[in-house]
Write a structure and sequence with these properties.
Elements lengths: L1 E8 L3 H8 L2 H5 L5 E6 L4 E10 L2 E15 L3 E10 L4 E13 L5 E13 L6 H24 L4 H5 L11 E2 L6 H6 L28 H4 L5 E7 L2 E7 L4 H11 L6
Antiparallel strand pairs: 1-7, 2-3, 3-4, 4-5, 5-6, 6-7, 8-10, 9-10
Length: about 260
């Protein structure tokens, strides 16, 4: 998957450059980062939580800075895996910084990412939609840090992640508990097995009321087969991802 994104940041190029090279600050800006360990001046080990549809992964990613031309260019690569969901990720990124009018800075990023395993099975369109949302959140967090006066690291500590990440799901009705307990399932239940958490991971989801999670702008999907029901809330701005997910759930309904 190839990604190319750009944004204009209301801060001078030298300040943006210093922030991008500070792992403590970036940990507060990159969505999903749980922790960062500095291995050397050019190597970092981070734990990043990523959720796509009903699958959550906690990747241990080692990032290495390969080349820098301060304050205009940076190239790095990262590799990591989460054995619990049998998924691996490898990415290379190039960052280009250019001075813009009124003391602003244009940040352009070119990245190539390969995702293998369970997460990689969602397909290119779903992965790109996820990447687009993460880029938008990163841009908002970075801008918030650079707007705050004083120590950027202290400002980064106050950046709050999104209160609710998408998609949000409340699984209820007959069949859901059976699928999450690992008990023997009839053939009619196999179509959804890959969508549900593994044994022991459904707690805290099945118990939530779907009405308590629902927002006025959400797309509500209810899939029924025999006695089984899945209820899903999906943000309207993630409609392409929802469509891709439905194709995997209802392959026999495709035209």
């Amino acid at each position: 998957m190839e990604i190319e994104k750009s944004m204009v940041i209301a801060a001078p190029i030298d300040r943006v450059w210093s922030v991008l090279l500070d792992p403590k600050i970036m940990a507060g800006c990159v969505p999903g980062v749980q922790s960062v360990e500095v291995l050397s001046d050019t190597e970092y080990l981070s734990t990043i939580k990523v959720k796509i549809s009903f699958i959550s992964a906690n990747f241990k990613i080692k990032t290495t800075i390969l080349e820098t031309k301060p304050p205009h260019y940076l190239r790095c690569e990262g590799t990591g895996e989460d054995s619990t969901v049998a998924s691996t990720v490898k990415q290379t990124s190039e960052m280009f910084l250019t001075s813009a009018p009124d003391g602003a800075t244009e940040l352009r990023v070119k990245a190539t990412a390969d995702v293998f395993g369970r997460l990689g099975s969602f397909g290119l369109s779903v992965m790109k939609t996820k990447a687009d949302r993460m880029w938008e959140e990163f841009g908002d967090n970075l801008a918030a840090v650079l707007r705050r006066p004083g120590d950027p690291a202290a400002a980064a500590a106050h950046v709050k992640p999104a209160a609710v990440s998408a998609p949000r799901a409340a699984m209820a009705e007959a069949g859901t508990a059976r699928a999450s307990t690992g008990a023997a399932q009839p053939a009619s239940a196999k179509w959804w097995a890959r969508l549900l958490p593994q044994q022991g991971q459904a707690q805290g989801v099945a118990g939530e009321s779907i009405q308590s999670l629902r927002l006025p702008t959400d797309i509500y999907v209810e899939v029924r087969r025999a006695d089984d029901v899945i209820k899903v809330l999906w943000p309207a701005n993630a409609a392409p991802e929802m469509a891709a997910w439905l194709k995997t759930v209802l392959p026999d309904r495709q035209s």
